[in-house]
Amino acid sequence: MFSVDIQIHQPYAATSPFDLQARFDLPAGRCLGIMGASGCGKTTLLHSIAGLLMPSAGVIRSGDSLWFDHKQAIQLPPWQRPVGLVFQDGRLFPHMSVEQNLRYGMPADLARIVLPEVVDILAIQSLLKRKPSQLSGGEKQRVAIGRALLRQPSVLLMDEPLSGLDDQLKQQVLPYIKQVIATFGLPTLYVSHVGDEVAEVADEVLTLAQGQLRQAK
């Protein structure tokens, strides 16, 4: 079980003072969708889970492991949190091949998620020798998802991973995301501002507005 119960207070945010409260439990193999307008705090929430930002209070727990506990002064750094983070733009290394990008960050010891399985599920075998500049937008995102999986994450965080794609490419990539969730059984947090997109992949959808997570209407 992946559990989040945090408060974030940023009194000196660039635009205005920022407050956010988030509380949810996410079992293995389930996808929680979070919707909200730009600037509502969706990315801030993901960055707090990944350890890139520190919440003001609360707890983040992955199974028996505490990632953040304000009262106990526990704040694991990002490199100690097994998180698979997929950004809007893929963020592949341009000088590396697809295979090199996939292998980057893979642990040296035995892995439960292995390269051949990821390549097969995401249908990227034919792309392995290419550079990112030779890929379409949809192909780049499939590779980015593969790289996130091969980090052996305990949770998969997807920050508007299809926002840079047109509707046709989105429909091509969405089935791969659903297959990844079903195959690897990772608790997954899927953030977007597009309702139809979130509804297609998520088991439950919450809306983030005025600093609060609520059931989507």
* Count of helical regions: 6
Strand order of the largest sheet: 7-8-9-3-10-11
In this structure, how is the largest beta sheet organized?
A: 6 strands, mixed
Low-confidence segments, ≥5 residues, pLDDT <50? none
CATH class: Alpha Beta
SSE run? EEEHEEEEHHHEHEHEE
Straight-line N-to-C gap: 26 Å
Helix content: 25-40%
When the domains are counted, the total is 1
Features:
single chain; 217 residues; alpha/beta; Rossmann fold; 6-stranded mixed beta sheet; 5-stranded antiparallel beta sheet; 6 helices; 11 strands; 28% helix
Written overview of the protein:
- Helix 4 (137-149) packs parallel to helix 5 (167-184).
- The strands form 2 sheets. The chain has a 6-stranded mixed sheet, with helices on both faces. A 5-stranded antiparallel sheet has the order 2-1-4-5-6, with no helix packed on it.
- It is an alpha/beta fold and 217 residues long.
- It contains 6 helices and 11 strands.
- It has one domain (2-215): Rossmann fold.
- It is globular, with a radius of gyration of 17 Å.
- The chain has helices at residues 42-50, 98-103, 115-121, 137-149, 167-184, 195-201, and strands spanning 2-10, 18-26, 31-35, 57-62, 65-69, 74-75, 83-86, 155-159, 188-192, 204-209, 212-215.
